[in-house]
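User: I'm preparing a small set of examples for a lab meeting where we compare how different chains pack in three dimensions. I only have the primary sequence for this one, and I'd like the structure in token form so I can line it up with the others. Please keep the answer compact; I'll paste it straight into my notes.
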Amino acid sequence: MRDEKLWRREGPKELLEFLSVATDEDYDAAVYDTKLQFDTANIAAVRYVASVAMAKASRSGEVLEEPMPDDGSVCPYDVVPETEAMRSLYEKRLEKEAGLDFYLPDSSAYSDAVIHAIERRNILLEDRTEDERRQMEESAREARRSDSRYMLLHYYLPIAFAFFSLLLILYKLSH
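Assistant: Understood. Below is the structure token output for the 175-residue chain.
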């Protein structure tokens, strides 16, 4: 089942922002990791690549169902892309690969963005719907009620019992 909330969550939302402006080594790191070239200006392509990256990096084997766009905005990394923007990034990558014995892009920023996307799955307050906000407020009220009951039963009641027991002992000792 497709998670409609996924792209409103803090980490995945930031990963989309990262991938949509990725260039040079950041873009190349994403391409090498996912084995996919993508059009950074196409949000459907960016979402698909982000879902592939997150699924690969997930320790739980989570499967993220995001449809692959069929407009040529995503293609295998070893195929000449159809769009001019993707072709430009492809050719730059080929130049780097040809100029070095072994080209390995710095993937630290990309890796951090993917890990952050997996770990930070909370939805920011400003991105929540009215129903989600009401549900959050109700949960907070229920938590406060539960805390109050816990404090009464496990803190105040034992203190009161100990106090009255002490008074009873003192009364017995004085008579």
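A couple of notes for your slides: The helical segments are 10-20, 24-34, 43-57, 84-99, 108-119, 130-174. The CA atoms of residues 2 and 63 lie 10 Å apart.

User: Perfect, thanks.
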